């Protein structure tokens, strides 16, 4: 009874805290306070949870990501923090899960079912059997179309600049939508806080299934003998070996020609100088080359999925696969070299940085695939390793203030053809103080100068509408710099 009372108070506290911390506020100090509360609720509702190594790492990741939000306040930092929160909530429901994606799935399912579960618990009692088939069907009906929409949204966003600009404008206006000014917005925040605590404190029917599934997974491959429909399994395996070997030999020869061409034209060749030619040089085929690397990785993973790893005298096949992987690493470096030429000529941009980050993750994936082939590792090892790589790389990316970094680099290294509208309109207001420091590059009374003042006014209005709960270091740096600028020799020009 005492435990139920504590749980009930924690749910109420979570609802009240989220409604207070995030109502009409941006993510800042409130993120740290909410994270401390979540970790406290986890430790109180699950005694001994933080004795587990995974739970300690998840708690450290949550606090570190919250600190990054306070320091940089970037979208990447906020995304990594939300992922860390999902990891924590999932581990509270299943502390022995190793696969981060399973923890995230548990968290989403737990928070999704929490509102309905709380209603059942209040009106029917906790010991009553609940029928979740309807909820599960609803989840499937929602999840599959949502996945399809998100997948094609991603494709359209990166392939259509006009659609991407429209989406960016909509996302920028979200915090000003009228719904967030209604009491309904505060109720939604309260429900979110209560649902997170409820998901932490109550058993998740999906947890046992995921733990049982993961318990049957291992990082070392085991040979499994099976019958095949076209003949004896050993003969079929020999046939598969021959097909795979000759396919890899042919693909290696083809990729060798491609890599030699890239080395001659991209690494030491003549790079186009006009914007159009350089854009075509970089963009034409870049995404297809990245896609080809992913397909190549999938092909090797498929070959060494199971019993070919144990085929006698398979060293030639492994050697061909490793050469294929090494050539794909070289191909990835060539794609990076294309991107480097564009950055050197026309500066940094989020998409160009994104290509480099994705190439880094791709190379890590190729290395982990090499280790899988060499050491007879399982697909579970491959998924586990790359999931941690993605989490760590994005956490490291979140530690950098990319808007300031992009602005400083472009102003210093591409001053003759710097894209001022991009720096002013497309980047967030975190780079305001850098733009005002370099205002000599912006012609007075020009369109860019007007847009810069408009951006400054928007920042000041946002700052005035927030309280100390939204405080973050990026905004504080801007506030101090703009205050000093206004009180300096440019005071009259800035305040007109």
What this model shows, in words?
- The chain has 496 residues and is mostly helical.
- It has three domains: 214 residues, no CATH class; 145 residues, no CATH class; 93 residues, no CATH class.
- Helices cover 75% and strands 0% of the residues.
- The chain has 21 helices and no strands.
- α1 runs antiparallel to α2, α2 packs parallel to α8 and α5 packs across α8.
- The longest helix is centred in the middle third of the chain and has 35 residues.
- The radius of gyration is 27 Å and the shape is flat.
- The C terminus is likely disordered.
Give the topology.
Layout (H helix, E strand, L loop, with lengths): L1 H20 L7 H17 L7 H19 L3 H19 L6 H25 L8 H27 L1 H13 L9 H19 L3 H11 L17 H35 L7 H9 L2 H18 L11 H32 L3 H26 L3 H20 L3 H12 L6 H7 L5 H6 L9 H19 L7 H14 L4 H5 L1
Helix pairs in contact: 1-2, 1-8, 2-3, 2-8, 3-4, 4-5, 4-8, 4-15, 5-8, 6-7, 10-13, 11-13, 12-13, 12-14, 13-14, 14-15, 17-19
């Amino acid at each position: 009874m005492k435990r139920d009372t504590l749980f009930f108070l924690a749910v109420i506290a979570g609802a009240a805290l989220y409604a207070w911390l995030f109502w009409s506020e941006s993510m800042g100090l409130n993120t740290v306070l909410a994270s401390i509360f979540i970790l406290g609720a986890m430790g109180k509702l699950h005694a001994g949870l933080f004795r587990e190594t995974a739970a300690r790492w998840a708690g450290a990741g949550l606090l570190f990501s919250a600190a990054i939000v306070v320091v940089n306040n970037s979208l990447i930092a906020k995304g990594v923090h939300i992922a860390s929160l999902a990891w924590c909530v999932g581990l509270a429901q299943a502390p022995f899960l190793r696969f981060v994606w399973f923890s995230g799935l548990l968290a989403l399912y737990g928070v999704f079912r929490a509102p309905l579960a709380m209603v059942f618990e209040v009106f029917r009692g906790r010991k009553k059997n609940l029928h979740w088939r309807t909820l599960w069907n609803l989840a499937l009906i929602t999840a599959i179309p949502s996945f399809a929409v998100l997948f094609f949204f991603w494709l359209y966003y990166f392939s259509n600049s006009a659609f991407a600009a429209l989406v960016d404008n909509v996302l920028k206006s979200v915090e000003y939508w009228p719904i967030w000014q209604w009491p309904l917005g505060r109720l939604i925040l309260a429900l979110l806080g209560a649902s997170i605590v409820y998901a932490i404190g109550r058993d998740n029917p999906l947890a046992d299934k995921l733990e049982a599934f993961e318990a049957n997974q291992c990082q070392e491959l085991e040979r499994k003998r099976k019958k095949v429909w076209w003949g004896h399994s050993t003969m079929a395996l020999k046939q598969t070996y021959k097909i795979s070997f000759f396919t890899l030999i042919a693909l290696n020869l083809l990729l060798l020609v491609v890599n030699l061409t890239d080395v001659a034209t991209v690494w030491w060749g003549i790079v186009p100088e006009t914007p159009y030619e350089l854009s075509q040089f970089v963009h034409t085929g870049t995404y297809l080359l990245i896609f080809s690397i992913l397909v190549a990785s999938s092909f090797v993973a498929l070959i060494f999925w199971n019993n070919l790893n144990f085929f006698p005298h398979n060293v030639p096949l492994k050697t061909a696969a490793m050469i294929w992987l090494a050539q794909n690493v070289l191909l990835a470096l060539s794609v990076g070299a294309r991107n480097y030429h564009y950055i050197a000529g026309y500066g940094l941009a989020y998409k160009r940085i994104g290509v480099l980050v994705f190439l880094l993750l791709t190379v890590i994936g190729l290395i982990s695939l090499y280790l899988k082939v060499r050491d007879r590792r399982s697909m579970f090892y491959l998924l586990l390793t790359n999931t941690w790589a993605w989490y760590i790389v994005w956490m490291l990316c979140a530690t950098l203030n990319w808007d300031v970094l992009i602005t400083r680099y472009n102003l210093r290294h591409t001053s003759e053809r710097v894209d001022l509208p991009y720096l002013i309109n497309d980047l967030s207001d975190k780079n305001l103080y850098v733009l005002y420091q370099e205002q000599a590059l912006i012609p007075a009374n020009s369109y860019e100068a007007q847009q810069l003042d408009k951006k400054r006014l928007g920042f000041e209005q946002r700052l005035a509408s927030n309280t100390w709960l939204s405080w973050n270091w990026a905004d504080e740096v801007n506030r101090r710099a703009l205050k000093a600028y206004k009180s300096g020799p440019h005071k009259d020009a800035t305040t007109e």
